[in-house]
Amino acid sequence: MPETIDGSGDPKWGLRVIHVDRAELNANAPTGDAKLAKAIDAVRECVRSRPGIAGTDAIREVLGGTMATIRAAVHTLIADSEVVERKVPGRGNSRRLYLAHMTPTDAQ
Q1: Cα 36 from chain centroid?
Q2: Euclidean distance between CA atoms 58 and 64, whole angstroms
Q3: Residue 98 contacts residue 47 (beta carbons within 8 Å)
Q4: Residue 80 — left, alpha, or beta (φ > 0 → left; ψ -120 to 50 → alpha)?
Q5: Which of 35, 108, 21 minimizes the C-alpha distance to 76?
Q6: What is the CA radius of gyration of the chain?
Q7: Which end of the chain is less congested by CB atoms within 10 angstroms, N or C?
Q8: How crowded is residue 37: how many other Cβ atoms within 10 Å of its Cβ?
Q9: What tens digit of pLDDT does each residue of 45-101 get?
């Protein structure tokens, strides 16, 4: 694992490689909760900047990432009533996503 060394008085300053065992490496890795929290923030911002976005597939096209993570983030936001899912009239099963306070009044 690389470690940055301050150049104050050390003639070997710069980048130093140190050994890290698997347990130490896993302790510094982001947890699933951190990844989900980051995905939730990204999805919230995506829906805010694109009101009426056409579901999780469209969000994934914009953000990338895994479909499972995007779906989990969307379902969490819907469960927390931050995002609402509205059916598009006359479009079969088409659904659009909006932030709760940005939902059009004529959405069904």
Answers
A1: 6
A2: 10
A3: yes
A4: alpha
A5: 35
A6: 21
A7: C
A8: 14
A9: 999 999 999 888 999 999 998 899 999 999 999 999 899 988 877 777 788 889 988
Under 8 Å CB-to-CB from 46, ≥6 apart: which residues?
53, 59, 62, 63
Token code pair at residue 10: 């050390």
- Is residue 97 within 8 Å of 53, Cβ to Cβ? yes
Residues in the chain: 108
- Asked whether the beta carbons of 95 and 86 are under 8 A apart, the reply is yes
Q: What is the pLDDT of residue 22?
A: 75
Cα 13 to its chain centre, rounded Å, is 37
Encoded amino acid at 68, one letter: A
Extract the tokens encoding 11: 């003639």
pTM above 0.70, yes or no: no
User: First-to-last CA distance in the chain?
Assistant: 54
